[in-house]
Amino acid sequence: MLDDPRTVRVTGDATAAMHRRADDTDAEDHPERYDERPVPEAYCWSNLTSGNGARALWLLLLPFMVANLAHWMRPPTEDQPRAVRFYGVLVRLVALSLTVLMTAAACEVALDLTAWQCAGTAACAEERSWLGFASAARDGWWSQPGRRLALAALVPTALVTLLWYLSNRTWSAYEAERPRTFDDHDEDLPQAAEAPAGEAPTATTPPAAVRPALGRPGFWYGRRLVARLRAAHTAAGLLTVAAGVAGAAARHDRAAGGTLREILAWTVEGTIAAAALFVVVVVCRRGRSERRVDHRVDRALVNWLPEASLGLLALAMVYAAWSRPAWRSSGTLPGEVTFTALALAQGALVVALGVVALVLHRRTRHPRTAMYGLGGPSVAMLACALGGVMTGGVAQRVADWLDGPGTPGMERSPIVGPPVLLSWQASVIPVLLLLLAVPALFLVARTVAAARRSVAVVEAEYEVDRPDPVRSRRISATRAWASLTDTAPVLVGILSGATLLLGAAAVAGSMAGKQVPGRVFDDAHPFVAALADSAQALGSWLIGFGFLLFVACGRRAYKDASARRTIGILWDVGTFWPRAAHPFAPPCYAERAVPDLTWRMCSWTDRTGGRLVISGHSQGSVLAAAAVWQLPPQTRNRVALLTYGSPLERLYGRWFPAYFGPGPLAALHREVHCWRNLWRPTDPIGGPVHLPAHGDKPAVDREALADPVVYGRTDNHPLPEPILGHSDYQADPAFAQERTGLLDLLPPALPRQRTGGLPSQGSSGRSSG
């Protein structure tokens, strides 16, 4: 980005840093050299997202990341704080259900399939030498079902512990970065107008007095909430394991009779249920606090809640390991009830979330808002679907491995297999793909037709005397395919709606009590029954293939830095937002990057009295805007904003309207001294921000840049120019023109600049997309 092989890190560390050309290192000491040009400085944050090989493990956290995005997709509102808080509570409950779902899947594999079914069946245990010591046929100490379950519980416990460790480690590295916002400029912020919990202003707050959310002091400092949610989700995971271990023993004791055993069984289960209810209360109780930088941490809750849950798990393991010589494992553990209850709860939460989103959207309708405000509920539904696919894939692959040549649930299989619901969920996957293929094919056909129609428009724009049909079609096709980005809400809406309906059908089918979906249609026409059997078989194959592909991608990313950078593009968008819903999601890099940029701009302008242009490409433009929002007014007046290839309005404004919608972007236009945006019609990611002139400030968007720069061969361009799309904006002459124009619009440098200051141009240095 600096266009020089010799660069120097001027501030920062190996994770994220500011860089300059080697020749510009001491620019502040020689301002006379830079009267005619600015000093370029680049900020690189790539190691925050693609980093080392351990980042590949973040793929396992994908459902948590998607659920966290749903929190930030709520429609904007001005006078409905209760509805906004209720929206946040519902998203946090969806996120909690995902933690329980993932832990329940680990319990299904370790407790049910392995310890209960396989170890309890001689034919299965004999084929697995590592299970021999726990085989029921050997009548050893570990042969009792309760003791096998207690030992197997170490596997899901280790998973929960790993998630807690990763969340705690990243919490200490990311959320611990203290932002430089209005801490030292309290008079600049109307504190009384700020909304509690970072949600919405009170009904008595004048809307005009409320500062945009991304400009609030505590927006990029979610330390307290993440610690609280981490404790609650860890406790939820441990209690899920405890319920799986103690539940089986409790059911046996109640069936065996005896007052003491029955009382003990109800006491253990009741204690676990009460602790689980308390965890739900903790999750619902508090949201984000953004009015100020909140350094407090609920240490009593954060420390004792996981510890108490771990103690209950130990109690459950001891209770299950209590000697019961007559106890034999048969059938399956009640995983069917667990997964069905989770599916029903997630469906109900998503529907309730959709109702709240529609209520919020009715007050602040805007035609550019994605899916009429239903983006958050749709994404929450996709998070649940991802969690279901991952858990079902793991359970079915392990079941296939344990039963050897048999098929789980069939007569020759030594084990019953995973819950019926997982087979039903697999059977709806082919149907879902077919439903999605119809609009996808329609969009492809429409795009091809649009490309053909716009050939004449392209030739007219370039004023071509002798058009080249191949060249014209290529430019037109690039523009048409780039416009597909704007149809994403349609596909997401169809996918999430179909997932909700087919998921409900899968639950209904599993409750019919049939192990194989095709058996429900035994009395129907043979063709219908054959279709159902084929759908179930194909779905099981697809879910297994998807899981293996997922593992292969993670393995490749672990070893290959280029693949890791590609996955880093996904993290660029998905982990931009703070962890407001799920603490086990990949960490928010902006909680490090935004303070970095803010501190650099404040410290440099304070020290030198200089002026600067902060320019950002793609995701860098989002970081640049977020950093400018955090600046105190006296610094913001010396800063100009230049964005190019920017998804600020096209993606963020449509999907996150409460934070990047028309209102917040218009407020940023008013607050920043000057702002220009460059875009191309061939860019599939960036686009205009649609901000008209305001007072003495011109419109933000420049006219669309020509891409390619020239149509054919000219004296200045003797070879054909490439179609750049989303890349190489700085190579366009318009970039230098707009940067110079912005510097001219900024107020002159303060007098103290003569003792060591100069105009500077800061760039957010890593593009995405």
TrEMBL record:
Annotated transmembrane regions: 56-74, 86-106, 149-166, 231-251, 263-284, 304-322, 342-360, 372-395, 422-444, 481-507, 527-552
Protein keywords: Membrane, Transmembrane, Transmembrane helix
Biased composition, class Basic and acidic residues, residue ranges: 20-35
The keyword Transmembrane appears for this protein: yes
Biased composition (Polar residues): 758-769
InterPro entries, per database record: AB_hydrolase_fold
Segments for region (Disordered): 1-35, 740-769
Source organism of the structure: Streptomyces purpureus
Protein name (database record): Integral membrane protein
